[in-house]
From TrEMBL, chain A:
Gene Ontology CC annotations of this record: nuclear origin of replication recognition complex
The entry's keywords: ATP-binding, DNA replication, Nucleotide-binding, Nucleus
Lineage: Eukaryota, Fungi, Dikarya, Ascomycota, Saccharomycotina
Name of the molecule in the record: Uncharacterized protein
UniProt-listed InterPro entries: AAA_16, ORC5, ORC5_C, ORC5_lid, P-loop_NTPase
Subcellular location: Nucleus
UniProtKB/TrEMBL annotation, chain B:
The name this protein goes by in its record: Uncharacterized protein
Keyword Isomerase tagged: no
Domain Origin recognition complex subunit 3 N-terminal, chain residue ranges per copy: 5-359
Similarity comment: family membership: Belongs to the ORC3 family.
Lineage summary: Eukaryota, Fungi, Dikarya, Ascomycota, Saccharomycotina
GO terms (BP aspect): DNA replication initiation
Top-rank taxon: Eukaryota
SUPFAM superfamilies tied to this protein: P-loop containing nucleoside triphosphate hydrolases
Predominant location: nucleus
Species for this entry: Cyberlindnera jadinii (strain ATCC 18201 / CBS 1600 / BCRC 20928 / JCM 3617 / NBRC 0987 / NRRL Y-1542)
């Protein structure tokens, strides 16, 4: 398979990566945004070289220990000296980087393995650990360790600042331009018609189709994977008139006019979760919780996010007091951080219950009788993790405090369900 | 489904039973002048009518209640299991699907109670693990706070339990993962060295182990990831509580392994889809194919219970009781167990306290032999009085009136008559209910009414409400097509064979609505089409109006039937008081009237009992003072008042008595030897004046109980007080 639009990088790689230990670089960095062909170009070059190489996917490594294990094992495997069944690995012995080097060198010595071996650290910026350490450790490894025949190639999106001054060569893979994208994607049709169409007709149609889609979306993304997704996603809708025999494949413009809206809709980037959600019409109710539970959540939200000193103005028995209150935004408060962005603060359950009584009476006009049901619901909400209890280590004064554990959006949607003006009660 | 488990999981609160300790003696004396205990076979029911109720009737009451309860329970059980199986099979189908590029993810929406969904999950897990090809791993946020602990749980789940069928895997485990179980408690953020020592050559969070395990299984069965039926099902119990970045990273990692591991995911979402989807980043969302399941079945179950159990029942739920259940269900507790409890409780009080409750379950012969005592009781019922007064008002049939009042036979006849008419009523109710829920409810998109609501409105005392319900439901039929109408017609016809009520309806519809009349209007031209439309509209209107007329004229409430009290469960107040007690009020009442709870003897020790009974519990005394004070309370004043309010001499005297009784003092009063020693020394020390002893005693009482009151939420310590921490503030939350 040929790789398009990457001739320059191919040439550079071929120049750097040689098959002899003398001329091979100590380390090499390939840098560029996602899906710009870094890994595939590298793989092709390495495949063509008469050298051994191992590819490690760093994003699958939770920690360095896993990474070391993977490097060790894949070097052993790819060297061809050890069979898969004979692999052994001792996590105990590999507790830090030094012991890893030691183990590796023991292997190299034991098997007299001194051929050039490229180790590709793919997606090296996505390891779930300290990225800088990875680069620092491996980039000069050949110079400082006995592992003279291992050459490390990093494939990364970004280069950490700690090695920007190092002399390691960097091959940059820039994002594709729109024209390049059209040429790459248009080269071979990814989709087909359900009906019999000549190969050439399909190709011509596909090229037009790719041009259309790429031009529409290239201002948003030039990630080739996303564009592929969009292309395959719109295809069934777009070519429907052709498959149903209404239009011919050469009537592209008519087709485009007809499908103008479908191509531009949210559908193309929505996940299957969203689409299923759209289907469901009765989703207008945000939650199946009982009414009082919703009120409890709202009042706990208020208790969490407003200070107790303003309670008496907010929940005053004087009915109209709080309604008339307009929100003065003092100059000082504008500098302060929005409360909602902060973590919820803890409150006494009694306070939340008092607020619940107040808002229930104010908004519904009827009194709420405190009974066991309310406590049951608090317990229930807490089991759903919508309310959190504080960890209390003080056994002498065992007063538990509570806080809410849901976002404003969720509480807002509950409030909307109940036609409850929650904004009136939040001091901000 | 194991109903017991289900019920337990639904229970979120435990209420201490308020029991007045009263010994029930079996010596045949009356209890509160009302009833005599029944001494046979441990039947807990009492002989009512001041003990005059025949024993066999008491036994009958008890057995009727028992059999009704058993019937309810079995019915509920079958309803629950049939509903769970439905979604479980759907989910299994998705799990069995071939693997694709994206990970198949089942999103279970529960929305109201995590306990319900956890039960569902456990059932699902059992359902899935029944198939040997599925390896179900359940993780939750509590155990998985870091990536490593999460992965460890997954790896352990996959390779952990021994699978007797796959010998190779067992060997594999022995070879590689000997000490995996020892990994439960370690801090995985640092000090990895320690862990590894206990672990045999592997990192427990290495997904490669899982991969090797799968390879082994495939190798053994001679297939690969695409041909094998092996699936690893990862169930995340509480996706809301997961750390967001962890969750996203985990899903990315799993996705990158999805070409090596046959992964299927099941998420349990407690809030809603929108909130959930905001938690995942877009690239992660695109890695998965989502399948939605609404596992919130409480509504469905209740609907089924209402139509299967409540409607066909011999006894009717009283309007108030049904309304109470409905309000409670809508407003606060969405819980099947609770729903059933309320109904059972209502049944129980009905059968326990009402000697007449057996009458609807007696045959005609037994009714004829009904003792006079019963008939006299019947005559006191309000509905009977109403009937008599209506007879008096009409004043044209004095003989009937007289015979009713004087002769038992006439009353018996009336009773039999009203039982019959009530049977007709229930039959009619059942038919109408069927018509609403099964026929009309299915055709109109979301009636928005639960079956319980329909039931409430249908049985309402106010006939306007039920008529309004008819119009409301039929209004939704308005846009129905003629084809659907024909289906309805056919359904009614089918049901009408052995149903008199529906037969009447069917007959009426048949005579008035002629579907064949439309045939003449079928045609292809525009005018003909229009005509057809107009005619079919007319037909639909006619159909609906006949239906509505019929229903409106035939739906009656049962309260016109004489003796309707016999057929309704109406003890709403008792149910309310016992199932939904007001917590704060109960605590306060208990504090004010401690004797209601503390009358009995619990120690069997004479002096101690006297001590307990001679003085009120200290906390009650304190609470009494608390009630009489103002908002702020100086703690020293409080103590002084408290001290002076206690009967000092009596308490001290009793204490001395106790202390003098050296021989059995230790085992009788205190189990703590050390504490006892100090107390004993203190009180027996002759050098300490009695006054000081008294002071110390009261102060310990005071401090201890003060803290208890604060804990109960009656007080709070005043924090902003200028005079140090010297005063308490009354916690004056209204109604809390």
């Amino acid at each position: 398979m040929s790789i398009r639009e990457r001739d320059q990088q191919l040439g550079l790689l071929r120049a750097f990566l040689t098959s002899s230990r003398e001329t091979a670089p100590n380390s090499l960095i390939l840098q560029g945004p996602t899906s710009t062909g870094k890994s595939i170009v590298l793989k092709q070059v390495l495949d063509q070289l008469p050298v051994k190489f191992s590819i490690i996917h760093c994003d699958e490594c939770v920690s360095y220990k896993i990474l070391w294990k993977k490097i060790l094992q894949s070097v052993q495997l790819d060297s061809g000296l050890i069979q898969k069944d004979e692999l052994s690995y001792d996590a105990l012995a590999t507790t830090n980087f030094q012991t890893f080097i030691k183990q590796m060198s023991v292997f190299l010595e034991d098997y007299h393995y001194d051929e050039l071996h490229y180790v590709v650290l793919d997606r090296s910026d996505q390891i779930m650990d300290d990225i800088e350490v990875l680069f620092k450790n491996f980039i000069k490894l050949q110079e400082v360790s006995p592992l003279k025949n291992l050459s490390f190639i990093f494939v990364t999106r970004t280069i950490p600042s700690c090695i920007t001054t190092s002399s390691t060569p960097v091959i940059i893979f820039p994002s594709y331009s729109g024209d390049e994208l059209i040429r790459i994607l248009g080269s071979a049709p990814l989709c087909r018609f359900n009906v019999e169409v000549e190969g050439k007709v399909l190709e011509r149609f596909w090229k037009q189709y790719v041009k259309l889609v790429v031009e529409m979306y290239s201002s948003y993304t030039n990630n080739i994977m996303v564009l592929k997704l969009i292309l395959t996603r719109i295809w069934p809708i777009f070519v429907q008139p052709i498959e149903e025999g209404e239009l011919k494949p050469n009537e592209f413009l008519t087709l485009y006019r007809r499908n103008y809206k479908a191509i531009g809709s949210d559908y193309v980037i929505s996940s299957s979760l969203d689409t299923e959600w759209d289907d469901e019409e009765n989703e207008h109710q945000s939650s199946n919780l009982p009414t009082i539970s919703k009120y409890i959540l709202i009042s706990t939200y208020i208790a969490s996010y407003s200070e107790s000193k303003s309670d008496w103005t907010m929940f005053s028995r004087l009915k109209d007091y709080h309604r008339k209150k307009t929100f003065r935004r003092s100059t000082r408060s504008s500098n302060r951080v929005n409360q909602r962005l902060l973590d919820a603060s803890y409150f006494d359950l009694e306070r939340a219950l008092a607020i619940l009584q107040a808002i229930y009476t104010i908004e519904t006009g009827s009194n709420l009788h405190t009974d066991i049901d309310i406590m049951t619901q608090v317990a229930n909400l807490s089991s759903m993790k919508l309310l959190l209890k504080s960890n209390n280590n003080d056994f002498i004064s065992a007063k538990t405090k509570w806080k809410i554990n849901c976002s404003f959006e969720y509480v807002k949607s509950l409030a909307d369900d109940l036609n409850f003006p929650i904004d009136h009660y939040l001091t901000e | 489904m194991n109903e017991e488990q289900y019920m337990q999981s639904q229970q979120t609160a435990y209420v201490l039973k308020k029991s007045k300790r009263q010994r029930v003696d079996t010596d045949g004396s009356l209890i509160s002048g009302e009833a005599k205990p029944y001494s046979l076979n441990g039947t807990p029911f009492l002989q009512l009518f001041k003990g005059d109720e025949p024993k066999e009737y008491t036994a009958l009451r008890y057995s009727t209640f028992q059999s009704r309860k058993t019937y309810q329970d079995t019915k509920l059980k079958s309803t629950l299991s049939s509903l769970t199986l439905l979604s479980s099979n759907d989910i299994e189908a998705i799990v069995a699907n071939p693997l694709g590029e994206t990970m198949d993810t089942c999103v279970l929406l529960s929305n109201s109670s995590i306990s319900t969904s956890l039960v569902f999950l456990s059932q699902l897990t059992t359902h899935l693990t029944a198939n040997n090809n599925y390896k179900v791993v359940t993780i939750n946020s509590k155990e998985s706070r870091t990536m490593r602990s999460t992965l460890k749980a997954i790896v352990k789940g996959i390779t952990g339990d021994a699978d007797s069928n796959v010998q190779a895997i067992e060997n594999f485990q022995k070879d590689q993962l000997i000490d995996l179980d020892d990994f439960d408690d370690f801090n995985d953020d640092e000090e990895d060295e320690d862990e590894i020592k206990t672990f045999d050559r592997r990192h427990p969070w290495d997904l490669d182990i899982a991969q090797e395990w799968c390879d082994l299984v495939w190798k053994k069965n001679g297939n690969n990831i695409h041909t094998s039926q092996l699936r690893i099902v990862l169930v995340i119990e509480d996706i809301e509580s997961f750390n967001l970045s962890l969750l996203n990273a985990l899903l990315r990692l799993l996705h990158s392994y999805s070409d090596r591991l046959p992964l299927k995911l099941i998420f349990n979402v407690g809030t809603n889809i929108k909130t959930f989807s905001q938690k995942l980043s877009h690239d992660v969302l695109h890695m998965m194919t989502f399948h939605r399941f609404n596992i919130e079945q409480t509504d469905q179950i209740i609907n089924r219970v209402v139509s299967d159990l409540v409607v066909p029942d011999t006894l009717l739920l009283d309007e108030e009781l049904a309304g109470f259940i409905l309000r409670r269900f809508k407003g606060s507790v969405k819980n099947v167990g609770d729903f059933m409890n309320t109904i059972t409780y209502a049944n129980m009080t009905h059968f326990f306290a009402n000697p007449l409750s057996i009458i609807p379950f007696l045959g005609e012969e037994q009714l004829m032999e009904l003792p006079t005592r019963y008939l006299n009781a019947l005559k006191t019922l309000p509905s009977f009085r109403k009937y008599i007064s209506s007879l008096v008002d009409s004043a044209n049939d004095n003989s009937k009136l007289k015979s009713l009042l004087q002769s038992d036979d006439a009353t018996r006849q009336l009773l039999i008559k009203s039982i019959k008419s009530f049977k007709i009523y229930t039959h009619c109710l059942k038919s109408v209910f069927w018509l609403f829920t099964e026929v009309i409810g299915k055709r109109t998109f979301r009636t928005g009414m639960t079956h319980l609501e329909i039931y409430c409105k249908l049985t309402s005392r106010d006939s306007l409400i039920s008529k309004q319900l008819v119009s409301e439901l039929l209004l939704k039929l308005d846009s129905i097509t003629v084809e659907d109408l024909k289906d309805i017609f056919a359904e009614i016809e089918q049901e009408s064979h052995d149903n008199d009520f529906l037969h009447g309806l069917f007959f009426k519809l048949k005579t008035h609505v002629d579907f064949n009349s439309l045939d003449g209007f079928r045609g292809s031209s525009y005018a003909e089409k229009m005509n057809f439309k107009i005619e079919s509209r007319k037909l639909v209107k006619l159909f609906i109006s006949i239906l509505s007329d019929f229903l409106k004229s035939n739906i009656e409430n049962p309260y016109h039937i004489t003796f309707h009290e016999l057929f309704t469960l109406s003890d709403v107040d008792v149910v309310k008081q016992n199932l939904v007690p007001s917590t704060k009020n109960d605590i306060m009442e208990a504090l004010i009237n401690p004797e209601a709870y503390l009358e009995g003897s619990c120690t069997g020790h004479e002096v101690l009992d006297r001590l307990n009974n001679s003085m009120e519990p200290v906390i009650s005394t304190m609470f009494t003072i608390y009630r009489e004070t103002t908002l702020d309370l100086n703690i020293y004043d409080y103590y002084a008042v408290f001290k002076s309010s206690l009967p000092k001499d009596e308490i001290m005297r009793d204490l001395e008595l106790i202390l003098d009784d050296e021989s059995n003092i230790l085992e009788s009063y205190l189990s703590d030897e050390l504490r006892f020693k100090y107390i004993y020394q203190f009180f027996n020390d002759k050098n300490i004046p009695t006054e000081l002893k008294w002071d110390k005693l009261t102060l310990t009482f005071f401090l201890q109980k003060c803290e208890e009151l604060v804990y109960c939420g009656f007080f709070k310590q005043k924090l902003h007080a200028k005079k140090k921490a010297g005063s308490l503030e009354k916690a004056v939350w209204k109604d809390v």
